Amino acid sequence: LKDGPFPGISVAIEQYGEVVYSKGFGFADLERRVPVTPSIRFPIGSITKSFTCLSVMQLVNKGVVDLDAPAGAYLPALPEPSRSVKVRNLLNHTSGIPNYTELPAFPMDKPVALTRDQMLLYFTAMPLQFPSGTRFSYTNSGTYLLGLIIEKRSGESYDAYVTNHVLKPFGMSRTGFDARDDGAADRARGYQLAKDGFEPSTAYDFEIPFSAGAIVSTSGD
Questions:
Q1: For residues 62 and 219, what is the distance between their CA atoms, to the nearest angstrom?
Q2: Number of Cβ within a 10 Å radius of residue 72
Q3: Is the dihedral of CA 76, 78, 80, 85 positive or negative?
Q4: Cα–Cα distance between 188 and 28 in angstroms, integer?
Q5: Per-residue CA distances from 86 to 89, 120, 135, 216 (Å)
Q6: Phi, psi angle pair for 199, to nearest 5°
Q7: How far apart are the first and last CA of the chain?
Q8: Residue 201's pLDDT band (boundaries 50, 70, 90)?
Q9: Using an 8 Å Cβ cutoff, are 112 and 71 in contact?
Q10: pLDDT digits (tens, 9 = 90+) for 147-199
Q11: How do 34-35 and 191-194 pair as beta strands?
Q12: Paired residues of 94 in beta bridges
């Protein structure tokens, strides 16, 4: 905590399928002095991508998504060049599609109230950074598109699909999608380091990271 610095940390260690250590340190909510415990729920950020890719591969296994099909086969309104990028290149970050969180035009300071269509306008028509499939470059944009493909091919919303086909089968009862921090006592607040210590971080809508970063979970789950 001192070296981070972080207001609070939740740690779990698993060995051979058994949790051998689980403990919280510091505070999940500085204002209310709520301590971190193993049951405190944190936004897990880009670990969400693992859930998205597993969901896509389930749909591939069912025969409703083809890894070598272009994204436009499932999202016909996509403009070029994104529509021609193969699903497998979206999965392994070799799409060449620019990462929307790194674009100067994207409102990272307060990304709220953007519709799906508005989000797509930021990156889908931009030139690829390199020919698709030739290089690796981490991008939230590709995983965002995978979330839309999941919705289109499964007939469920992204959060409903992941809940029904990943979270429930794995018994992840403390994991889910909180569109906004509603002040729940079991939810870690977000903070950033300021001149005089910690201050609340900028609030944002979890619909913005969507399938690239919207999941909230516990260290135990």
A1: 31
A2: 15
A3: negative
A4: 4
A5: 5, 17, 14, 29
A6: -135, 155
A7: 22
A8: confident
A9: no
A10: 999 999 999 999 999 999 999 999 999 999 875 666 788 899 889 888 888 99
A11: unpaired
A12: none
